[in-house]
Structures are given as C-alpha cells and as structure tokens.
Amino acid sequence: MQKHDPQPEFALITPDAPVKTPTHGWRAKCLQRLVRLDMPVPQTVALPAATVRAIAQGHRIDAHAILAHFGDAPLISVRPSPENPDFGGPATVLNIGMNPARHAALVTRHGAAAADALWLRFIQSYAIHVARLDPDMFHQTTPGETAIREALRAYATEMEQDFPEDPATQLAEVLRSMARAWEGTSARLLRQAKGAAPTAGLGLIVQAMAQGIGQGISGSGVIQFVDPVTGAPQITGRYLGQSQGRDALSRTEALYLTQDPRGPSLQDIAPDVFAALVDHGRRCRAKLREEMQIEFTVEDSQLAVLDAVKVQRSSRAALHIAVALADDGIITQPEAILRVEPRALSELLHMQVDPRGPRDVFAKGIAASPGAATGRIVFSSSAAQASAARGEACILVRRETAPEDIRGMHSAAGVLTERGGITSHAAVIARGLGLPCVVGASTLRLDIKERRLAIGDRVFAEGDIITLDGTKGEALVGAVDMLPPALDDTFRKLLSWADAVRDIGIRANADTPADATTARAFLAEGIGLCRTEHMFFDEDRLVAMREMIFADTPADRAAALARLLPMQRADFIELFEIMHGLPVCIRLFDPPLHEFLPHTREGLRDLAEALDRPLSEVTRRAEALAEFNPMLGMRGVRLGVVLPEIYDMQAQAIFEATVEVNRRGEAVVPEVMIPLVSARREVELVKTRIDAVAAAVRTKTGHDFAFKLGVMVETPRAALRAGEIAQHAAFLSFGTNDLTQMTYGLSRDDAGRFMNTYVQQGVFPEDPFHILDVDGVGELLHIGAERGRRTRGDLTLSICGEHGGNPESIDFCRRAGFDYVSCSPYRVPMARLAAAHLALNDQRNG
Amino acid sequence: MQKHDPQPEFALITPDAPVKTPTHGWRAKCLQRLVRLDMPVPQTVALPAATVRAIAQGHRIDAHAILAHFGDAPLISVRPSPENPDFGGPATVLNIGMNPARHAALVTRHGAAAADALWLRFIQSYAIHVARLDPDMFHQTTPGETAIREALRAYATEMEQDFPEDPATQLAEVLRSMARAWEGTSARLLRQAKGAAPTAGLGLIVQAMAQGIGQGISGSGVIQFVDPVTGAPQITGRYLGQSQGRDALSRTEALYLTQDPRGPSLQDIAPDVFAALVDHGRRCRAKLREEMQIEFTVEDSQLAVLDAVKVQRSSRAALHIAVALADDGIITQPEAILRVEPRALSELLHMQVDPRGPRDVFAKGIAASPGAATGRIVFSSSAAQASAARGEACILVRRETAPEDIRGMHSAAGVLTERGGITSHAAVIARGLGLPCVVGASTLRLDIKERRLAIGDRVFAEGDIITLDGTKGEALVGAVDMLPPALDDTFRKLLSWADAVRDIGIRANADTPADATTARAFLAEGIGLCRTEHMFFDEDRLVAMREMIFADTPADRAAALARLLPMQRADFIELFEIMHGLPVCIRLFDPPLHEFLPHTREGLRDLAEALDRPLSEVTRRAEALAEFNPMLGMRGVRLGVVLPEIYDMQAQAIFEATVEVNRRGEAVVPEVMIPLVSARREVELVKTRIDAVAAAVRTKTGHDFAFKLGVMVETPRAALRAGEIAQHAAFLSFGTNDLTQMTYGLSRDDAGRFMNTYVQQGVFPEDPFHILDVDGVGELLHIGAERGRRTRGDLTLSICGEHGGNPESIDFCRRAGFDYVSCSPYRVPMARLAAAHLALNDQRNG
Is there a catalytic annotation at residue A530? Predict the structure, then answer.
C-alpha cells in the first residue's frame, strides 16, 4: 500500500529542519535542540509518526534514500522517539549496516576482537528484535569467528534465508519491525496507562554510529549534573573505554567521571573531553531549561553527543531541580510550580525507605499514610505506651484500631492493621498524626493472645524489629536505610510561590493542639474540621463521659457534663491561641455513645465499680446502647436533639473560650458545625439552644462576641435539602467520607474486604474513599452547593474529610465555587501546590 | 364594628332557602334536607359563618329579629354547624328564653318539678358555657327552688349583675360566646389537625325547642338503623320519657326502641311514633344517601326530628354500609369505594381486640403489624416451636429478632420485642406473615436467662397469658374479647369494584409458598419482591450454606452450592406454580454471609465439628466476616461480584424451574433482580454471567425461555446513575427501605431509639420508614425514574419495600409514572383500594 503524505517521509535534523515534537517525537526535537546548540551530534535523520504508521501498515520506505545521508558503508542506529518519553517504545538497534564486508574493514581498522564483537552483537540484536527469533538461540556472548558462524547458521535455519547483508534491507526491516512493535496490544496498553492518546504515534531516529572503539581514547558513557535522589548539584555518570551505547552504566569496570580516590576517571584520562562535556551540560541546562542526562561517545578523542534525556529523579530531587532552575532565572516560578507533582510532596514530609537499599517485604497492604518507620512490634496500645515510656520506637500491630487505641497510636512510630481500608479508623488517625500506616494487610494472621504475628511460615513475636513503608504499603523485616524528611527552605520557597497563584482556601483538619501546631507550620489558613470527640478519651474525661452516659435524669447528665466543661474550655482556648485568630471550625459531638463504653467483661466490671451500680445494670445498659449499624445510628445531631445537654456544654465551652481569648487580644470568631444533619428542623432545634447559650455567656461575662453556625453535609438528604437547611446555616461543609458511605451504601470500615477486587475488575474506577466519586457523590455536592447558594448567596462552602487534600477534589471544589478545602495537616502542602497547579493550568488554557 | 355583608345575616330554613354547606355548615344543610323530606323539624334559623365571625369580632346581631321567627315567649336551642362535623365546635345550649315568667308558665303547664329542672339546667349551662364561670359553683343537680335561687345568686355575685331575663339578651350572649369559642387557639389547633383550613368558619343553628316534657307521651331519644360495629341492618338507640337532648343515651332507665325481653320499648308504648321514626330513617338513608343517626323528641305524642348525624362506625361497619348503599342503588360503586378508608381495611384482615371490652395494658410500643392474638409468653424460638407442637398459641417475646428466629415466628401467634422500629426485622417478617406485632416496647425489661419479663413492678413468667394488639401497639394482660376477621363477600365485592377503576399495578412481596398463596388470595398481580435468602435458613440448607461460606476454593464453593441447587429449583417451581403465570420478581441473594453463622460459642463449636475444622479456625473466620455496619457491607451485588458462584447457582435454579414449569404448561417469564447496585459495571458483570447461565440451561434442556434482568435501586448512587444502569436493566425496582436508610444515614434497626422523640418534636413529620419521605427519598425516586426512562422508554418502574402499600406511596408512584407497587401480602387489599381512591379523585379533580 502506497501512502501519499504531504509531509516528507523523513527529515535530516538540521537547525532549521521542520522537526516538531507532536510529529517527530520528543527525542527528535531534543536532538534538534542539541544541534542548534552546536553540539557534536552525529548525522541524524528523523522519521515522523505518519511515516512510521504507514510502514507498520505495509508501506515500503526507500531505505536507500535514508542511507544516502550517511555516506558510504555507513553504520547507523535506530531509536524510538514517541511524543512523550514516558510512552516507552521499542528497543534501540545499533550497528545497522554491519555485514561481512564492513566486518572485514573493521578488523583492519580496530582489530578482530572489536570487529567480531560488533558483528555478533548486531546479528543477535537483529535476530531477536527484528526477526523475533528465540533469544535462547542467540545467547552466545563470547565473540569470535565460531560464534558469528553459529549465529548466522541459526538465523538461516530458522528464517529459511540467509542473514541480510544489504544495509538498505537491514534498515528497512528494522524500521518495519519497530513500527509494528508500536502497534502491538501490550505496548498500546502500557503507553495508554501513562496517559497516551489511543492515536499516539511513534517517531523514529536514524543516527550515524559514533563507535566508541578506536586506537586513541575511545569509549562511551553518560553524564548528569545533579544527584538523582537529592537533586543537589553533583556530576554523576560512568564512562567505559571501547564500548557502545549505555554499556558503561552496567559494567563494574566503568570509570567515574570526576577525579575519584577509587581509581582513574574520565577527568584524569581525558581532561579536554571532560571539560567539553561539562560545558555541554551547562548549555543544555540553560537552553533546554531542564537537568539533562547526556549520552556520549568518544572516538579517537573526538566527543560525540548522541542523546540527552531528562534526568530521572526522586520527588525531592524534582523539587530542588525546579526551584534551582527558577532561582537561576532559567524557568519562571509558575513553571517551577508546575514541574513538581503535588502528590510527590507528601513523600518529603516524612522519613522514607531509601529506594537504593535492599527490601525484605513480608506483608503488603493498603498504603494508608505515607512515610516510613522502624520499631519493635507491639500488639496493644498499653504495650505501645510502655514502649514509648522506655524511649523505644514501636510499631503497633492490630487487627483494626478503635477509638480506645488512640493513645497507643500517639505512642507508636507506625501502625499496621490486618483489616480496614483507606479511610478506616487507623488510616484516618495515622494520617492526622503523620504516622506511617499500612492497613488491610489481609495475609497477616494475628494471635493477640499469644502475642504473635504469622504470615505464611514466617512468625514474628512482640519485640521483633520491623520497618513499615506507609508510602508503598509494605511491611519489611528488620531496620532498613532511610531518607530524612525534606522540609527545607527549598520546600517552603516553592510553596510560597504556589500560595501566590492559588485561588481556593486550604484549611487543615485538626483535633489536638499538636495537629493545630502542625497545621500552622504547614501554613493552613485555619482549621476546617476540629472533631471534638477525641477530647473525651483521656482517662479523667472518660470517667465523666461515662457518668453522663449512665445518668438517669437530665440534671444528672448536666452535672457530669459540668465536670467536662472546664476541660473542653481549656481545649478550645489552647486551639484558638495556636491558631492566632485564624478561623476554627468546631464540629459538635458526633460519635455514638457506646464508643465510650468498655467492650470487655473486665472493663464493664471496672465501670460498674466506678459508677457504684450493679454489673447487671451496667451490662444491660451498655448492651442497650449497642447498635446494628453504628454509622447510621444514634450519633451526630441526633444526640444533639435527644440529649441536648451535650451540645449545650460544648457551646458554652466554645463561647467562654472565645471570650477568654478575645480578652487576651486575639480576635476569634468560632465556627460551630452540626454533624449528620438530614432535616432542616434538626438545625433549627440546635440553633435555638446554641443561640440561647451564647446569650447566656454574653450576659454572664459581660462580653460580646460573634460566632458562625453551620452544618456538616454528610447525608444525601442534607445535600438534597440544602436549600432549606441553608436558611439556618452560615456555612455548609461537605463531609465526603460519610457522604460517600451513604451514597454508595458502603461502610468504609467494611469495604476493605472487596475494594481491591472491585478496583481491579474496574467496577469502581478508583476507591471512592480515596478519590472523590465525581459522578455520584460529586452530583450531590453540586446539588447541595447550588441549592444552598440559591438560598444564601454568601454561604461559605467547603469540603472536609479525607478527600479534601486530593488534587482531584480540589479541582472539583474550585469549579463548583467552593471557598476552601480542609484536609489532614500533613496533606496541606500537597493541597497548596495542587491548588496552584489548577489555577495555573486554568490561566494557560483559558 | 358594623359589618356590611351582601349575604343576609341569617336565614329561616325552608325547602328553598339559600342554605349551603360551605357557608352555613353541614348541620344547617342536613336540616334543610330533612325539611325538604317533609320531616317534622322544628322552626330553625341558620347563621352563616360570615355572620358568626362578625359576631366574634364585636358585631351585635339583632337577636329580636331572630326571635321573631319563634313566636311569643319562645324556648330555643343553639347548635354549632361547622363545614365538616369532624371540625368540632362549641357545646349546644338548650332552653334559651327561660326566665321567671316562662318558668311560671311551665309550672302551670307541666308541674314544678319539670319546670324547675329546665330552669336550673339553663342557668347552669348559661353560667358555665356563656359567662364562663367556674363549673364547680354550679354543680348542684337536684332541681328545686333553693337550687335555682343559689344558682342565680352565685351568678349575680360573680358577674356583678343579675342573670339576664330578656330572651334577646340571652340569645345574643349565647351567639357571641359560641362565636368567640370557635376562634380560640386550642379549638383552632384541634380542627386543623382534622384537616380544617385556617380560615374555616362556623355556622350556627337556632332552633325552637321541642320539649320532651308533657302530659301525654313525651320524651327524647336517638335512633339508627345499623349496628355500629358490624354495619349489619339493626335498629339501635334509646328513648327516655320526660327528657331533652341526648340524655337517653347516658341514662340506665332509658327504654330500648324495638320490642325487647328486657323491658318495655318505644315500640310498645308508642307504636305510631316508632313506625314514623322507621319511615323517616328509611327516607333519610335513601335521600341523604347515608346511614344517619336521628335525634328526636316526642311532645304529647307529637314526633319532632331535631337533627340527624352520620352514624359513627367501625371500619368493618363502614365497609358494609358503603357496599349496602351501592347494592341498593343509593350511591354509585365509585362512591362506595371512596367511602371506605384504605388504611381501615387492614383491620379487617385480622382478629381485633373488641373495642367494647376492658383493656389492661401493661406495655406500649410501635404498632408494627396489625391484628390481635392471645397466647402464652415464650422467650425463644425453640419454646415457640414446642408450644406450636403442643397446639398452644404463644406470643414470642424477644429483645429483637434475627433471621434465626424466623421458624419461631412462624410458630407464634404474635411477636413482642423490646427494640426495633417499624421496619425492624421483627416488624417486616410479622407483616409478611400477617402476625400481630408490637416492637420497640422499650419499657420492657427482659431477663431471657431467668425467663422473666418485667415492666415497672409487674412481672410475667414464661407461660403467662397475654394479648397483643398489633393495631394499637399495646400488650394486654390475659385474654380479652376479640372480633374475627371480616374477609367476607362484601370485602371482596368492594375490592373488585376498586380493581375496575385502579390504574397502577399492585404486586406482593412474597418469599415463601405461604406468602405467595396469601398474595394470590388477595389478588396481587404478581410477586414484586421474592427475597431468596430466607430459603437458606432451613436446617439442611444452612449446613450447605455454611460449607459454602467456609469453602477455600471456588470449586469447593461451587460444590456446596450444587447441593443447594435442587432445593432452590424446587422453591421456584413451587412459587411459579402458585402464581400461575403471573410475574415473579426474584431478588438474588442479598444479606451478608455472617448472618448464616452461629453467634454463640456453642454454635461455633457445633459448626467446627460439622465442618471438621479446628474451632480456632472457624472462630477466626467467623470473626473475620463480622462487620461494623452490616447494612453497608459485603452484601447484595458485592457478593455477586466477589463470589459469583452464588448468583450462578441461583440463576440456574430459576431457569431450570422456568423450563420445568413451562413444560407443565404455565408460561413463566421470571424477573431476576440484582440487589444493592451502586455502579453500572456491577450490573454488566452480573448480567454477563447470568446470560451465560441462561444459555447453558437452554442448551442443556433443549428448551428456550425468556427472562428479564433488572436492578433494585437501594443506594442513592444507583438512583443518580439510573441513566447508565438502565442500559443493562429491563426494570428498576426502588427498594425504599434501604434507600431511606442511606438517604438519611439512618439504620432502621437503630432508629427506634430516637424516632419517637424525633416525630414528637416535629424533626421528621413522620417516621420516614413508615411514610415515604417525598422531599428527600422521593426526589431520588424521581431522578432515578426520569433518568432510567430517558435511557429506555419501556423501562418497568416499581417500588418494593415497606412503603409499597401506603396510600401516600401509591399516590407518589402513580404521579411519577411507575408501573406497579409491591407490598406485604396483607397490605395488598389496602393498596388496591388506595389506588382506586387516587384514580377516582383524579377523575373528579381533573
């Protein structure tokens, strides 16, 4: 089939040739840039994607016409040049043009050994990559006449024809083979997973070989000018004499580039070549506006630059490279912002397992909270606290965690659970605390009584040392090499640039003074969700809580609550002071009361003793509080309506704290949020009482203050009825965790059991507790936002919950006109950067 | 204030007077009808509501002008005449016009005793109802001169003026007092609760007194022509000589009307009067088109008809009266349909506590399933089964019920639980079985171990006899009088009339052959929801279920399921045969697997033995299956996707049963329904496998058959995504129970704890599990229906679940264009009637 294309079928790369990334690929474009920088790039021809596609479909290209650019008896290479380097592509083929005649000439010029090696290598690579013969037949690696003969015979036997000697035939076959490989199913799926369009094409590069073999200084190597892990300026690379391609990287006898105590270096043996390389690198960085790795060849002391690719880099290196480029005026600050992937930031906030070290993984689970920690295994919160008291780092291993494990989690360096998903209790709390956490490691077999942990035939006892990699979701045997966090000036500088362009607010979810301090350190613009229930788990408060729960009359209940009041007030005073006048949104008491009762017989007996009531009564009442579906039970505003004394006490504590902190000089306007609302009247009832409490506090203290009352939208009904709910609410904050649970009818605590299957089978494109479900939950957010704003134009809208910090959620919220998102303190930096990306991309696209 | 009204201020009631119900009230209109029928109605004047309102606002009516209609020295009465008799109104005042002169005249004519009684009675009633003096001051009931003097003195002392003697003054004051009473807050709230508009006015009736006192046969009484409990034709009433008003009804010395062995009757002493009354009654029924109770007076053998009101009636009487009127050609069949309240029908399907008997209520709860039953208390399912085996009726009393109690419930005559709401397990199952059931009787204190039940200081032991009134939600001590069900020809006749006008389908939820038989008996048009999980609780099936649950490989799972296959197939064959070709919609397996495991240590030990596995492993795996929120867990289609062998087996059983029954000559097109869907892909995955099973069964049997695959919409997300889900579904059936749970974030099993408070405080206007929440859940139904139909115009839409039978839900579904509703078999009659009402009302209004 003959294709008629208005474009030329190929182009010699010159400074002025019409080479473009979309048509010829990134490598072709990059090589043209190197040519324009006057670098010693060997003669290169680029085939655009249209030509390559035609070849794949049967078009026979005129290989002689291409070869005409490379002189008599050329040796050439062919490399892939897709639009984006991440899209992959077929393997490079070197030394096309080798045949008996060329071999004879090379024997004469470089000796038999070098010539035999090149000839054998070409036969092997052609047989395997072009003729697709079984690699096992061509495994002979010791070059020589026998090996070459055998390889040629094997080829002829399998193919029923002799090995092609005509360079044009060789080139045409290589091009055809690479073109067709690009169209293969697995290649297509792989590149589409990296974001390639279904129509993405492949360019190809035909380049004269620079041999790296010669009498004088000859060889090949790669060089780059930054450390790939830290991003610090540092020349790294390898050079190997008498070699081709990227061999230097894999061979121990390769030389270092700079002077090195371990042995001779390129700088020692060829200072001029080295100086030229450094100069090329400097110009590359300045003109290509990127840190590049350069592939080079030296032939008889003549330097050739074959290729340049973006330096592979860790997240921290990416950050440092981008900021350094901007600081040097090579790229703009917005460009630097866009060059750092927001999700990558979270790695920088925590210790990380050094990717260069060995890993002995004994269990895999869900990567629930990033970072890494090494410590001794403990199986209970009390053991964790004891370990912390001894100053020993520990990893808390539980079937799952419950609110009573909070103190243990505070004491642990990391948390590993057998059950649970990305928004299970353990995961949420660990992210809040910035602790590495792996959940749902379902192959674990915990024997809590025997204090043993088994996986297959491996057994760990309490006290054994393990390392948790919360970034990867893996548990490793023993201690491993770590990288420290990278919260340095560079990090802060990039985020300050991001804040300058961002157009949506970022707050943090913070329950404790420690959380609030972290939130401030990460420059959160306030607290978007302060969950007050965690405040009641301290030993002394728990007693009063339980008395409140077992109170027989409203008066008894109020008396127990009165004991909690000063503690709550102190909590809020501390939070307000840490936040220095930034907004603090306090969610009123939410969880079901049975969470505050002991779950064991022993605990119930202690409680009966403490309350001086018969065990039978305590047991009966505890049982009566148990619920079939606690998530859908007597919690949130339902408690506020049925036992209004709890919210009364909390409101009083908030308002008295406000007065106290206002008197100390901070202007605090607390935001009070009602959880789990499903009907307007719930809001009315609570609002009436809270207004009354505010009036009483104003009268008692003689001090006026302002506050805002709002609603947490967590039920589908609250979203649907947002229009009438907004009549009584100054703000609506969407609790997307619970809203997702209810929209899907899916408990986050129970979903772990099948979520992997569901995501693997594509039932859900993503875990909806991890990535906001824009189609379902998102529609309810839109409905709620739109109806709420129709009632009240100045309604403040936000989301809190685990989705808050995700770039996808921030994108959604910006488009929906939300005022802010709120997320775990440790996700605030990512959220700030992601918001800046979105604003910049909008500016670019619109 | 003088009001100028175009209407006359009052009207003498004549056959042609412009008296209308909206202006003059129902009583005025009724009296005019009696006048038109030539009945001996005393002279009557009607005041329209506009006049009464003006009086209340201060207008002074010309009482002399009214009195002019009643001759010299009249005695008159004033009665209320609101638009609807249910709206209430102030008390009637008799004998206006009494004063010393009139008293003297009466003494002469009827003797001092009669005259004193009238005079004292008037003073008392004027003082209490008109002057609003303390009733205690006028309690003297023995008439006589002293009593009259004291009453007049007390009046003068309190009012600081003498008792008015001028009849015009008396009348004006009575009218003013009654007009103002109507405007009082509590009167307004009471009538608005009965459906009165805020503007509803009051008419008043001024009527000449017929004395009931005289030398000849004189007295008063009431008569009606049907039994108020059964509706059977039967003259009932009382007559009391020398009396006024409705005194006869409350005095033991009153006579019966018809000849009676217990003593003399009106028929004995005044056969002509009695014959005239019977004739009036006949004409009343024919012309007023209703069974009326007539209030009459006899004065010197002269009959006067004072008033006629609709006979008070039980539900069963209402049914019989309406059908009899239609059968007699007095009203049309549609009118008869509209005269029977759909909700009242459910009373007729069950035994009822006779309202005329004594009640000793020891506990109140939620009226979860109507009807009544007497039996001995049992505290366990096994005791219930033992009791049934002995042929003794029993009442199963539990904290709450679980699926393992089903067999016990089948054996019980009624169910009483401490916990749970209107859609708790106990309630749903009881309604399905037609068993009386009271749930959420939270004052009960059950001691299951001691087999005792305490309420306050009352204690009941196992074996004690109690009666459950599921219609009222009460538990009564001992056995009480009962009324039998009323499933007679009259009942069936009315429903056949209803079916002729109804325009929406009614199916039944039926899980068992017994349910299906009931559904057929009540003329359900098919099964709208057959829950298949109940089929697995029989002892022999449970073993296979548990083997399936503990299977280690898909092959083991399939082997256990293969043992269930023939049983499932037999289930469906039986259902299909009972339903004789009517559609049967089978919901695939839905509940979480842990429901099939034992919950006690002992049960687990038995299971370990049965499965020949270590107890530790069985316990561990049972624990691993436990869920935090089972409602939102691994159930429904999630099981279908993760363990597809279960649905494969069910589909095979359904299709093989279809083939078998088709071969026997019934044309069965089974409907297969996928539960708990939240994403389109779930439907795709299940559909692919079910289509494959269908193909396999077709091949294996050599028999072709059709089936429909549909989706149960129970999650908010499924409603929102109905557009894409309908691509793969022939029908959508909204499971409003679960949809309500998820829309509100409210577990029906846990809501009982606060639902009463919530409804009482008006947070929810109604329990949303009882009455469909049109605002929230209803919007999701609209969204789902609209989006589904947009994808597929012929999509069949329905609701199943507890709301299905409610008139409100049927109204909603008709307007939303649904094809049918499905409800418990025992609610099918109500649903058929309610649907007819809605269709008829639409015809009338449109």
Answer: no
